Amino acid sequence: MTEKDLHFYEPKNGHGLKHDPFNAIIAPRPIGWISSRDGNGNINLAPYSFFNAFCYVPPIIGFSSTNWKDSAGNIQDTGEFVWNLATMDLAKQMNATAAHVARDVDEFKVAGLTAAPCKLVNVPRVAESPVAFECKLTQIIQLQGKDGEKAQAWLTLGEVVAVHIDKAFIKDGVYQTGLAHPIVRAGRRGDYFEIKPENMFEMIRPD
């Protein structure tokens, strides 16, 4: 591959394409389907495309929101949230919770989902989801550029203190990722990908 085969750009000067390729290149991305509760008891459920796991011990997950969203505000107020696994069976419901609605509107009801109580946090999980992580807030960090200028984006990190897994997806003591058919962001706005068992393969580390 030579220089003439490459499309090169510096993000600060624009990408020069029809659509910004950043999201499409970093794919697939797990979906941060986050439920939270504000200080007045209002429940919120929303999906975030910038989400992942960051640490084994303690287990830490996090999501980033562009602009200050209800989820970040709720979590800052209460110190708790829940991550719910978005699957192919729940794709339409997950998408419904992305709607911009008033703060006091319950997205569980909007999407026709069941709010199930958790064990260690006062935030409901999506009962229909096969996996849920109960989390306690560890940090909320406003992101910044290399020049130190603050970005309008906040990374919310939480320690997983309790886990719910549908036993149907545990075989011989091993959680089977593909059996749940999780969906992930596969590119720009509106693009998703379904993870299936037949699309998975194994590679053993050299060491």
TrEMBL record:
GO molecular function: FMN binding; oxidoreductase activity, acting on the CH-NH group of donors, NAD or NADP as acceptor
Pfam families listed in its UniProt record: Flavin_Reduct
Record-annotated Flavin reductase like domain positions: 24-177
Highest taxon above the source species: Bacteria
This protein's name: Asp/Glu/hydantoin racemase
Organism: Bradyrhizobium valentinum
